[in-house]
């Protein structure tokens, strides 16, 4: 029996990360599930026959521990850890929120990529998938800190692809639009469930985590010469950031 290919998924404790870990495991990967919440990644790893590593991507010592657990060969890295904090306009935004968003969405990706590149290179056929966002393509009111950070994710992905051209490593970015997960909007609004629910109110079928995971699984299944530079995915009801079809109770 051949040794399974190995994948690392950061931010695997919930949402898109957990769904991606499941999808890659179902496709035969040995998946290293990394996130800060040890209990969650341990439960996920037990479910999918993978491995759990408690890791804070913003802490380089913690990321060094992830690299040590991965060892010297890696095939797929999904830099999924990220998030939005706050929705205030630029005029009144909290710089600590902006700093935290840059830390996790950009520097976290940098830390993990730097630590795992040697193993991806040694694996001989690597893939990095960075989880971007449509917030990395456009601006919207109240989104300044998050859109700045996700534009950073996009541009770092592009830079890395240029810098590694000629090496056996593919580099992709997935930029999802409206995805309803259990935590993204609740975290953004500081635990305010009503505000989080309002984001998706009346939207017939926002994307779910499994939809985005399917895109990662597909990219990882492609042959080595086939690089998906970037993939924007939205629910049918969202034609653009500000163009969202919503139905009221009386319409349904
Ligand atoms: C999430 C998409 O629309 O909340 O990355 O910025 S959005």
From TrEMBL:
Keywords: Oxidoreductase. Gene3D superfamilies: NAD(P)-binding Rossmann-like Domain. GO terms for molecular function: oxidoreductase activity, acting on the CH-OH group of donors, NAD or NADP as acceptor. The keyword Transferase does not apply. It holds the Pfam family adh_short. Transmembrane segments: none annotated. PROSITE patterns: ADH_SHORT (PS00061). InterPro entries: NAD(P)-bd_dom_sf, Sc_DH/Rdtase_CS, SDR_fam. Belongs to the short-chain dehydrogenases/reductases (SDR) family. This is NADP-dependent 3-hydroxy acid dehydrogenase YdfG. It comes from Nocardioides panaciterrulae.
